[in-house]
Design brief:
Number of domains: 1
Largest sheet: 2 strands, antiparallel
CATH class: Mainly Alpha
Strand order of the largest sheet: 1-2
Number of strands: 2
Strand content: under 5%
Distance between the termini: 30 Å
């Protein structure tokens, strides 16, 4: 990073660290919502932005994580934060089971399948197929999270939990982006046919990135369940997937900073104009349309990755 970028990042981190000290509970709660959507958008960005795989059913994995945590907590009294790895495993394995039969699909065909998966999950939750989801009423009485005996109750407390998780996710995903795994995903995004011809196991990387992105969405679902203490199918509708897709595209698919900036705009701006409730979504929709016409590549588009001859010719480098 150059000096200006380093200074901007340091200033942003400092402002976010002290923000709860100067804001009221409502505005802190808005920042908490931005953090949760940012976390979900980062997990979708891994699939859509880094690998170029269209996914409009990300809310299904979010729901799997939230319901896993809620069921384990309310039925078996497992502390809610202890369910984070279990929620990740359930959401990740569910994504692998769903993606395995359709991993060969591309573009809009994959998009349609993921929409169908999202609706199947939502309908199963509403109809309480296995008798454990509470149907349309959802699950109540989820306990508050605890850390070393400290019960997290206030929005200010959740703020540091959520944004601490966001910071860890950014660090991990940026490291992943620079790894061999990240290079393979970018190669897959730029030209799948050339990648496969150069020895990249495309099916393996598609499944791996779907599983990883879904696992992270599952953990975000656990944080959501812990924050709300009640969940229902309404929180995981198709609209949630649309919002996440919109955040990634608006911010610039593949750009972590752009995705976070878009999360602030998409989630934060409507809250600032809540007093104009009758027109705020209309204005917001018009702004989105203008944005897509003026800058379709997003606010901070990711640069196309340049591959060296060695990377393109070495058939074993991505296996």
């Amino acid at each position: 990073m150059n000096r200006f970028t380093s200074f901007a990042v340091a200033l942003f981190v400092a402002l976010m660290a002290v923000a709860p000290l100067f804001l009221n509970a409502y505005h802190v709660d808005v920042l908490n919502s931005i953090g949760l959507y940012g976390l979900l958008a980062l997990s979708l960005n891994l699939i859509l932005g880094e690998a170029g795989l269209f996914n409009m059913g990300h809310a299904a994995f979010y729901a799997m994580g939230a319901y896993t945590a809620a069921i384990l907590n309310t039925r078996y009294q497992i502390p809610i934060l202890w369910t984070l790895p279990l929620s990740a495993l359930v959401a990740g394995f569910f994504a692998l089971a769903v993606a395995r039969p359709v991993v060969h699909l591309r573009g809009d065909y994959l998009l349609i399948v993921t929409i169908g998966v999202s609706e199947i999950v939502r309908i199963a939750l509403v109809n309480d197929v296995f008798g454990i989801t509470g149907g349309a009423n959802g699950i109540f009485g989820i306990s508050r999270p605890e850390l070393f005996g400290f019960v997290i109750r206030q929005p200010q407390h959740f703020y540091y939990l959520i944004w601490g998780f966001v910071a860890f996710t950014i660090f991990l995903f940026l490291r992943l982006k620079q790894s061999r795994f990240g290079r393979a995903l970018n190669y897959l995004r730029e030209d799948e046919v050339a990648a496969e011809g150069s020895g990249v196991n495309t099916d393996y990387y598609k499944l791996a990135v779907f599983g990883l992105g879904a696992a992270w969405a599952g953990m975000a679902g656990t944080l959501f369940a812990a924050k709300m203490t009640i969940i229902s199918p309404e929180s995981f509708s198709f609209w949630e997937s649309v919002v996440l897709f919109m955040i990634v595209i608006l911010g610039g698919a593949g750009n972590v900073a752009g995705v976070l900036l878009a999360a602030f705009l998409v989630i934060g701006l409507p809250e600032l104009f809540r007093e104009f409730s009758s027109a705020r979504m209309l204005v917001f929709g018009l702004v989105m349309m203008v944005m897509m016409l003026v800058r379709p590549q997003g606010l901070l588009p990711a640069k196309s990755r340049q591959f060296s001859f060695a990377e393109l010719s070495n058939k074993g480098s991505f296996r």
